[in-house]
Design goal:
By secondary structure, the protein is mainly α. Helices cover about 75% and strands about 5% of the residues.
Length: about 190
């Protein structure tokens, strides 16, 4: 059973099968672990725990960089984009502008979230021309209307239309899962 003979030698296949099963189990465990780590990064970033998010994301990024070097895996490239996005958001939350720009610029220009965060960044820095460029790109993409409304409300606040900005931000407040967006909204709503 699970063996065959070649001349006077009997070759047993069960050790090979065991090795293959152990290898497959290792791959499955690694996939679950990576998925859990990626979810943890997102949860930490949403909760505003930026230093913890950065620590795990950097480790994950190093892993995916090795995977890409070895296999040119497209899934690894998309995971790296997600990690760079969460790193950028975390650095934004920590007011580390240089690392925010460094990470966000690594995302594909077609990425709508890239343009949302860049528009928000430039609006808060009062760089209205750059804000408008990213806002225009964002408005041409399929993205939640809530993100556009959020940016519009912040712009209205900067223009001095605080009542309208407060109303929009109050309505949107519960729809955002990023603590950073809620913190920015809270400052305006509580004025």
């Amino acid at each position: 059973m699970l063996s065959f003979e070649v001349g006077n030698t009997t070759i047993h296949l069960w050790p090979l099968i065991i090795v293959l099963l152990v290898g497959a189990l290792g791959v499955i465990i690694r996939a679950f672990w990576l998925s859990n780590q990626n979810k943890k990064i997102a949860d930490l970033c949403h909760a505003g725990k930026y230093n913890e998010s950065i620590f795990i994301a950097q480790k994950q990024l190093n892993y995916y960089e090795r995977v890409i070097k070895l296999s040119k895996n497209k899934n690894a490239k998309s995971m790296m984009d997600i990690l760079h996005l969460y790193l950028a958001i975390s650095y934004f939350g920590l007011s580390n502008d240089d690392l925010f720009i460094q990470n966000i610029s690594l995302l594909d220009d077609d990425n709508a979230e890239k343009h949302f965060w860049l528009a928000l960044f430039h609006l808060l820095k009062n760089n209205l021309n750059e804000f408008q460029q990213h806002y225009d790109i964002l408005s041409s993409k399929e993205i939640s209307a809530n993100y556009l409304s959020y940016l519009t409300a912040l712009k209205k606040h900067q223009e001095g239309n605080d009542a309208e900005a407060r109303d929009v931000l109050s309505a949107l407040y519960s729809k955002f899962n990023f603590k950073l967006l809620k913190d920015i909204s809270s400052k305006i709503i509580e004025q």
